[in-house]
């Protein structure tokens, strides 16, 4: 009778569900450890002071126009030792290289996203040109925010490459590549496939991945609604400009009513002209939402890395279980699984005692190595879960605080706009009363 094609079951190793009390205790202990690393922002002021267009040649020796950003750093306190004011220029691609390095080096961290390289999510009346001065200015603000996010992170702020990025003008890229971070990077295909092959996924990370998908959907919808509101708002303000033009033209043909109509027209013109400042504030609000829209990818990156870690653990556990079964078959002389070697033994006779003993010794060594590998992967998986969950909790607190502030600011802005509209028409009413 043919036996099963493999081990019937593999012991669940790693990915042990902790109680809420144990998890909270782990988080508190880890937070105490990482808080020992002082935030860089407490010692150093970091700003992306300005942007500048430059012309040069790209990697294929073709002429190109690109933008560089001036990073300025200075000590918070004049008495701070070891820190001197500094400034250097960086291209957007260098910010991308820094973030990719951080993603690979700190897979358990929800790394802050960069602002858009090109305007992909934009209100249609604004320019989508990535060289447009308004867009470049918004990207400058976003890059400064990215540096502040990294500099205030309890782990990332202590990274040597990040500090070099802020202070070393030359040979920075070479220093990054010398770290070998690219060799550590898992292929995207491998990480994606691991998600479909993990037999014992961690429910918390699965739930987190679903949450990030839902958050991305909600924020995308919110940005689309905001764009429609901004479009209508722009139309309302421009219509008030038409009111101003009509009142001014009307005042020219009236003697008794002329002054009142002209004054009302001035109020309408001023109201219409204020739309640019309003839309700039609108875009600032949109950029805050976009940051967390892009943060959802960072959350999923942490989940993918955990899936890969768990998959590797399950593979070494499966290999160990197979080796144990081979040893059992060799000792008892019974073959539980179908294999070519098993059929060969039945057809051409059993192995000699010396051959079996030699194989047993090899298997013993392999079992010892396998147990060490499982222990190592277990430790790696446990440490990943512990550190990642601490950072996820930190991210959740940051997200709740930032989005609450953004939504309140948006509500205050809308109330202010409504009050301004009421005031304009109140002033116009007084002008009409004086006619």
Could you please describe the fold and organization of this structure?
- This protein has helices at residues 20-35, 92-105, 133-152, 160-167, 172-178, 181-184, 188-197, 203-251, 258-273, 275-332, 340-348, 353-433, and strands at 44-57, 63-75, 86-91.
- The protein has 435 residues and is mainly α.
- It has a three-stranded antiparallel β-sheet with strand order 1-2-3.
- A hairpin with a 5-residue loop joins strand 1 and strand 2 (63-75).
- The longest helix has 81 residues, at 353-433.
- It starts with 19 loop residues before the first helix and ends with a helix.
- Mean pLDDT is 81; it is low at 1-20 and 26-37.
Which helices and strands occur, and which strands form pairs?
Blueprint: H1 20-35, E1 44-57, E2 63-75, E3 86-91, H2 92-105, H3 133-152, H4 160-167, H5 172-178, H6 181-184, H7 188-197, H8 203-251, H9 258-273, H10 275-332, H11 340-348, H12 353-433
Antiparallel strand pairs: 1-2, 2-3
